[in-house]
Amino acid sequence: MSPSSPSTPATPDDVLRAAGVTFRVHTHPPVRTAEDVRRETGLSVADSVKTLVFTADDQIFLVAFPGLGRLGYGRLARAVGVPRSRLRPAGEDVLRSLGMEPGGVSPVCNAPGVTVVFDTAVTRMGTVYCGSGRADRSVEVEAADLLRLAGTPLVADVAEVPDGAEVTVSAEGAGDAG
Asked: What is the DSSP letter of 18?
Protein backbone atom coordinates (compact mmCIF):
# COMPACT_ATOMS: atom_id res chain seq x y z
CA MET A 1 0.00 0.00 0.00
CA SER A 2 1.46 3.33 -0.98
CA PRO A 3 1.35 6.30 1.35
CA SER A 4 -1.20 8.92 0.51
CA SER A 5 -0.23 12.29 -0.90
CA PRO A 6 -1.92 15.60 -0.09
CA SER A 7 -4.10 15.15 -3.20
CA THR A 8 -4.99 11.55 -2.26
CA PRO A 9 -6.25 11.37 1.31
CA ALA A 10 -5.67 8.18 3.28
CA THR A 11 -8.69 5.92 3.46
CA PRO A 12 -10.24 5.32 6.89
CA ASP A 13 -8.86 1.74 6.67
CA ASP A 14 -5.35 3.15 6.12
CA VAL A 15 -5.70 5.52 9.08
CA LEU A 16 -7.01 2.76 11.37
CA ARG A 17 -4.30 0.33 10.27
CA ALA A 18 -1.50 2.90 10.67
CA ALA A 19 -2.73 3.63 14.22
CA GLY A 20 -2.72 -0.07 15.10
CA VAL A 21 -6.46 -0.07 15.77
CA THR A 22 -8.31 -3.38 15.70
CA PHE A 23 -11.24 -3.17 13.27
CA ARG A 24 -13.29 -5.32 10.95
CA VAL A 25 -14.64 -4.42 7.51
CA HIS A 26 -18.14 -5.55 6.48
CA THR A 27 -18.84 -5.63 2.74
CA HIS A 28 -22.45 -5.15 1.60
CA PRO A 29 -24.53 -3.59 -1.19
CA PRO A 30 -24.18 0.22 -1.31
CA VAL A 31 -26.19 2.04 1.38
CA ARG A 32 -27.14 5.66 2.00
CA THR A 33 -29.90 5.63 4.61
CA ALA A 34 -30.66 3.92 7.93
CA GLU A 35 -33.34 1.90 6.11
CA ASP A 36 -30.70 0.75 3.58
CA VAL A 37 -28.46 -0.32 6.48
CA ARG A 38 -31.31 -2.31 8.06
CA ARG A 39 -32.33 -3.93 4.79
CA GLU A 40 -28.97 -4.50 3.07
CA THR A 41 -26.31 -5.07 5.71
CA GLY A 42 -27.69 -6.99 8.66
CA LEU A 43 -25.77 -4.56 10.89
CA SER A 44 -27.47 -2.88 13.85
CA VAL A 45 -28.42 0.76 13.27
CA ALA A 46 -28.65 1.13 17.07
CA ASP A 47 -24.95 0.23 17.25
CA SER A 48 -23.92 2.52 14.43
CA VAL A 49 -22.33 5.94 14.28
CA LYS A 50 -23.70 8.04 11.45
CA THR A 51 -21.36 10.70 10.06
CA LEU A 52 -22.40 13.73 8.04
CA VAL A 53 -20.17 16.38 6.47
CA PHE A 54 -20.86 20.11 6.68
CA THR A 55 -19.06 23.23 5.57
CA ALA A 56 -19.14 26.77 6.88
CA ASP A 57 -17.04 29.32 5.05
CA ASP A 58 -13.75 27.48 4.44
CA GLN A 59 -14.20 25.00 7.29
CA ILE A 60 -15.14 21.31 6.99
CA PHE A 61 -16.87 19.47 9.83
CA LEU A 62 -17.35 15.71 10.14
CA VAL A 63 -20.24 15.21 12.55
CA ALA A 64 -20.63 11.76 14.13
CA PHE A 65 -23.66 10.75 16.20
CA PRO A 66 -25.62 7.58 17.09
CA GLY A 67 -27.28 5.95 14.09
CA LEU A 68 -30.74 6.27 15.62
CA GLY A 69 -30.15 9.91 16.47
CA ARG A 70 -31.32 13.03 14.69
CA LEU A 71 -28.88 15.87 14.21
CA GLY A 72 -29.85 19.29 15.53
CA TYR A 73 -28.49 21.82 13.02
CA GLY A 74 -28.79 24.69 15.51
CA ARG A 75 -26.98 22.63 18.14
CA LEU A 76 -24.22 21.86 15.67
CA ALA A 77 -23.88 25.51 14.64
CA ARG A 78 -23.58 26.57 18.30
CA ALA A 79 -21.05 23.81 19.03
CA VAL A 80 -18.76 24.79 16.14
CA GLY A 81 -19.26 28.52 16.67
CA VAL A 82 -20.78 29.49 13.33
CA PRO A 83 -24.13 31.07 12.48
CA ARG A 84 -26.70 28.45 11.47
CA SER A 85 -27.21 30.34 8.19
CA ARG A 86 -23.59 29.54 7.14
CA LEU A 87 -23.72 25.82 7.93
CA ARG A 88 -24.24 23.76 4.74
CA PRO A 89 -24.28 20.04 3.95
CA ALA A 90 -21.10 19.33 2.00
CA GLY A 91 -21.33 18.50 -1.67
CA GLU A 92 -19.88 15.45 -3.36
CA ASP A 93 -16.81 17.50 -4.34
CA VAL A 94 -15.95 17.99 -0.66
CA LEU A 95 -16.56 14.31 0.03
CA ARG A 96 -14.23 13.38 -2.84
CA SER A 97 -11.56 15.72 -1.46
CA LEU A 98 -11.77 13.70 1.78
CA GLY A 99 -11.58 10.39 -0.11
CA MET A 100 -15.19 9.52 0.73
CA GLU A 101 -18.47 8.98 -1.07
CA PRO A 102 -22.13 9.47 -0.11
CA GLY A 103 -23.30 6.60 2.09
CA GLY A 104 -19.78 5.85 3.27
CA VAL A 105 -18.76 8.94 5.22
CA SER A 106 -16.51 8.10 8.15
CA PRO A 107 -15.43 10.00 11.26
CA VAL A 108 -11.94 8.60 10.55
CA CYS A 109 -10.13 11.19 8.48
CA ASN A 110 -6.60 12.54 8.44
CA ALA A 111 -7.21 15.41 6.02
CA PRO A 112 -5.76 18.65 7.38
CA GLY A 113 -8.12 21.35 8.59
CA VAL A 114 -11.09 19.03 9.20
CA THR A 115 -12.86 19.32 12.55
CA VAL A 116 -14.42 16.11 13.83
CA VAL A 117 -17.47 16.62 16.05
CA PHE A 118 -18.80 13.73 18.12
CA ASP A 119 -22.16 13.77 19.85
CA THR A 120 -21.67 13.17 23.56
CA ALA A 121 -23.60 9.87 23.33
CA VAL A 122 -20.85 8.38 21.13
CA THR A 123 -18.43 8.63 24.07
CA ARG A 124 -20.59 6.06 25.89
CA MET A 125 -20.83 3.58 23.02
CA GLY A 126 -18.79 0.39 22.79
CA THR A 127 -18.29 -1.48 19.54
CA VAL A 128 -19.90 0.45 16.68
CA TYR A 129 -20.34 0.34 12.92
CA CYS A 130 -19.39 3.40 10.92
CA GLY A 131 -18.62 4.43 7.37
CA SER A 132 -15.47 3.26 5.63
CA GLY A 133 -15.32 6.01 3.03
CA ARG A 134 -17.25 3.78 0.62
CA ALA A 135 -20.99 3.11 0.48
CA ASP A 136 -20.45 -0.64 0.06
CA ARG A 137 -18.37 -1.19 3.19
CA SER A 138 -18.79 -0.50 6.91
CA VAL A 139 -16.17 -0.60 9.64
CA GLU A 140 -16.70 -2.28 13.01
CA VAL A 141 -14.54 -0.57 15.62
CA GLU A 142 -14.54 0.63 19.22
CA ALA A 143 -16.06 4.10 19.62
CA ALA A 144 -13.21 5.03 21.98
CA ASP A 145 -10.75 4.39 19.12
CA LEU A 146 -12.73 6.73 16.84
CA LEU A 147 -12.47 9.50 19.40
CA ARG A 148 -8.78 8.84 20.04
CA LEU A 149 -7.96 8.92 16.32
CA ALA A 150 -9.70 12.26 15.91
CA GLY A 151 -6.95 13.82 18.03
CA THR A 152 -8.76 16.67 19.71
CA PRO A 153 -12.35 16.20 18.59
CA LEU A 154 -15.12 18.53 19.59
CA VAL A 155 -17.56 16.62 21.81
CA ALA A 156 -20.99 18.23 22.23
CA ASP A 157 -24.71 17.47 22.43
CA VAL A 158 -25.53 17.87 18.75
CA ALA A 159 -28.10 15.08 18.28
CA GLU A 160 -31.22 13.72 19.87
CA VAL A 161 -31.68 9.98 20.27
CA PRO A 162 -35.35 8.87 20.24
CA ASP A 163 -36.94 7.71 23.48
CA GLY A 164 -36.57 3.98 23.92
CA ALA A 165 -33.43 3.82 21.78
CA GLU A 166 -30.53 2.54 23.78
CA VAL A 167 -26.94 3.53 23.31
CA THR A 168 -24.71 0.46 23.57
CA VAL A 169 -22.12 0.87 26.30
CA SER A 170 -18.88 -1.05 26.30
CA ALA A 171 -18.33 -3.12 29.43
CA GLU A 172 -14.65 -2.29 29.10
CA GLY A 173 -13.84 1.35 29.66
CA ALA A 174 -17.44 2.59 29.79
CA GLY A 175 -17.24 6.33 29.84
CA ASP A 176 -13.54 6.23 28.94
CA ALA A 177 -13.53 8.00 25.60
CA GLY A 178 -9.79 8.22 25.29
From this structure: H
